Amino acid sequence: MTPEIRTMEEQVRELQKKIESAKAAELEANDPAKKVADLIHTVTCHSNHVDMCGWEYENSESYKKPGTTRNRYYVRAQKLIVNENVKELIRIITKFHSTR
After folding, report:
1. How would you label 57-95 residue by residue, b for 16+ Cβ within 10 Å and e otherwise?
2. pLDDT of 42-52, one tens digit each?
3. Is the pTM of this model over 0.85?
C-alpha cells in the first residue's frame, strides 16, 4: 500500500470519527426525555427557584448527573417514555396547557 493511500485511509477514519461525534451530539440535543423532563418540571415544580429548586442553577449536563434536580426529572421522563405511559404524559401536557 502506498503512503498516499495510507494517508487517505487515515483521513477517512478521522472523518468517520467526526461524523459519529456529530451524530451523537445531534441525538443528545434532540433527546425526547430532556424535553419531557423540562415539561414535567414546568408543570409540577412549585418550589421557590431562588433557594429551593436547583433547576435554574444547573446546566444541560446535569440531566445525566445523579443527584441533581434536572436528573430527578429526567429519570421520571425516561420512565414515562420507556413504559409508554401515554396517559400520564397526556395528563401532564394537558395540565401544562391549562395553566397558560
Report:
1. eeeeebbeeeebbbbbbbebbbebeeeeeeeebeebeee
2. 888 888 767 78
3. no
